[in-house]
C-alpha cells in the first residue's frame, strides 16, 4: 500500500511541468524512499541524519576559519537548577558543539536564582560580542516564580538560536524563514520529512499539539512549505479521523503511545516528537523512553517513522548547532550570509 502511494505520487510529480525542469532530481527525491525501504526498514533515523549534518557543519566551520582565523562560534547555555533531564540534554548539546568546533559554555545557576538575577545573566551575555548564541534551558528549575516568556524574550533576537523569542516566532508566522532563527525541534522535523523524499508541497499535514516550542512552529513551517495543515490539541474532537487524513503526521503531546497505529493513513510519514519515560524493570536504568505514537503498530502503516529515542531528539540538538554557526557567520559577515 505504501509502495503504491509513493508510485502514484512519484508519477504525479514526474508529469508536472515544474518537475520536468529538474526531472532527475525530482524523480530521485520522489522515489528514494522506495529504495530506502529495503535498507532502513522504514526507520527515519534522526541520529544518522544528525551525524551527517554535524559533519558538514564541522567542515563549514573549518573552511571558514581558513579565511577568518579568529572565527569560533560560541554558544552560552544557561541553566537554572539541576533537573536530571535538563542535565542530559545539556550534555548532548555540549558534546555536539565540541564535535563541530563550537565553544559551548554552561552557566549553571542555583535553583534559588530569581527572575532579576537570571535577566542580569542574560543581559551580560547579550552584551558580550564573543557570544553568538544564547539558550536558556527549559523548564526552569527555580524555587522562585520566573516568567519563562519574559526570559526567552530577553535574549536578543540575533543571538536567539533556540528561535523562541517572540520576534523570531513572529517572523516565522508571517513566512520570513530567512532573516531570523527557526526553532530547533520544528526545523529538525522539517529536515527529517525532507529526507524521506516526500513532497511537502500540496500534502495534507496534521500536527498534534500546539505548544510554543513544538506544535505551533512546526505547523507554521509546514504551512510555509506549502502543506495544507490541520492543528490538533486536547480539545480536538475525533482525533483518529483527523489523523487518518494525514500524509504527514507530526505528534508532540507528551502522552506515551497515545496515537495508535491503526489511526495512521497507510504510507504516511510519521514524526514523533514525544519523549516519555516509562518504568521498566528489565532496563538497567529502571525506565525506558517511548514516544507519543505506538511505534510498533504505527511502523506497519507508515512509509517512514521516527524512533524514540534516536529520532527528533538528535535533530533538535543539531539544528541548535546549525543556528549557532549561522549566528556566528552573521556576526562576522553581517547581512551577506
Ligand atoms: P506541552 O507544552 O505540554 O504541549 C502539549 C500539547 O499537546 C498541547 O498543545 C496539548 O493541548 C496537546 N495535547 C495534550 N494531550 C493531548 C491529547 N490527548 N490529544 C491531543 N492533544 C493533546 O508539550 P511540548 O513542550 O510541546 O512537548 C511535547 C512532547 O515533545 C513532550 O513529550 C516533550 O518531551 C517532547 N519534546 C521533544 C523535543 C525533542 O527534541 N525531541 C523537544 C521538545 C519537546 P492543549 O494546548 O489543548 O493543552
Features:
337 residues; five-stranded parallel beta sheet; 14% strand
How would you describe what is shown here?
There is one protein chain. The N terminus is likely disordered. The protein has 337 residues and is α/β, with parallel strands linked by helices. The termini are far apart. A five-stranded parallel beta sheet has the order 5-4-6-7-10. A three-stranded parallel beta sheet has the order 2-1-3, with helices on both faces. It has a two-stranded antiparallel sheet with strand order 8-9. Helices cover 47% and strands 14% of the residues. NADP nicotinamide-adenine-dinucleotide phosphate binds next to helix 13.
Percent of residues in β-strands = 5-15%
As a whole number of angstroms, the C-alpha radius of gyration is 20 Å
Bound molecules: NADP nicotinamide-adenine-dinucleotide phosphate
Structural class: alpha/beta
How many DSSP E strands? 10
What is the approximate shape?
globular
Q: Which strands sit side by side, in order, in the main sheet?
A: 5-4-6-7-10
What ranges have pLDDT less than 50 throughout 5 or more consecutive residues?
1-41
Largest sheet: 5 strands, parallel
Oligomer: single chain
Average of per-residue pLDDT values: 90
Helical content (DSSP H or I, runs of 4+): 40-55%
Order of helices and strands: HHHHEHEHEHHHEHEHEEEEHEH
Q: Count of DSSP helices?
A: 13
Question: What gap, in angstroms, lies between the N and C termini?
Answer: 44 Å
